[in-house]
Design brief:
The chain has about 240 residues and is mostly beta strands. It contains five helices and 13 strands.
């Protein structure tokens, strides 16, 4: 698979929606996860990321302007032992609870489908990073409607064992802006992951559409020690 420029992918797409990037730093020492949210409505844009234990959650920036919390207030990132879960909705909790009961990542998601937000039927995208005894694997999932038909759900899981240093994969909810919004298609895009968390975070944030971007989370986890560094950037301050 050809490696694409993550910077160009973001700069040339005004509305990828919500996106997950998972991979390994160029020096091979860090497991890397990033998650961003965007919004077109006032309700969607009225959010910030806040730390919540080892993970994060979304929170209304101005509680008085929150009209419908159902699909915008959730925990995008949770940590379960040696696993870090990253998703675009409350399926984070579904995965956490399922894997805590010894279900696999894929099995835990069997009880979920795309979001009930007709006519978009936004895909649920999810990722998991598994670090154990100095080894690192990750997987990405997308649950989407049958080409806009909500009577069926298409389920795709992409697993990456022993990823190469400097390599990652990017999946997002929407192919581009539109009405209704067209779902992401194909495999996650192969991208490059640098060593420096701050420069990577800055590149992502600066590449996202200025009008639509809302919040960004980036984490670098040491594969040997599991110590991590986190960057959170919110447009609302």
């Amino acid at each position: 698979m050809e490696t694409v420029s993550l910077e160009q992918e973001l700069k040339t797409n005004a509305y990828p929606g919500r996106g997950i990037i998972i991979g390994k730093s160029a020096n091979g020492k860090k497991a890397v996860a990033a998650y961003f949210i965007m919004g077109r409505s006032e309700n969607s844009r009225n959010r910030v990321f806040v730390e919540d234990g080892e993970g994060i959650r979304t929170q209304a920036f101005d509680p008085a302007k929150l009209t419908d919390p159902s699909l915008i207030i959730y925990a995008p990132v949770r940590v379960l032992g040696n696993k870090t879960i990253v998703t675009n909705g409350d399926q984070t909790d579904t995965i956490y609870e399922g894997m805590d009961k010894q279900l696999t990542f894929e099995q835990a998601l069997r009880s979920r489908a795309f979001e009930p937000d007709a006519p978009n039927y936004t895909p649920r995208i999810s990722g998991i990073l598994h670090i154990e005894n100095g080894s690192y694997n990750y997987a990405l999932s997308i649950l989407k409607s049958n080409c806009g038909d909500p009577s069926g759900c298409r389920r795709f899981t992409f697993a990456y064992e022993n990823p190469k240093a400097g390599e990652g994969h990017f999946i997002h909810t929407y192919r581009c802006d539109g009405n209704p919004l067209p779902s992401f298609e194909g495999e996650p895009k192969q991208v490059s992951i640098p060593d420096d968390i701050q420069s990577f975070s800055n590149m992502l944030w600066e590449s996202l559409n200025e009008e639509n971007k809302v919040s960004l989370f980036v984490r670098y986890i040491d594969i040997e020690t599991k110590a991590y560094d986190t960057v959170i950037i919110n447009k609302n301050k």
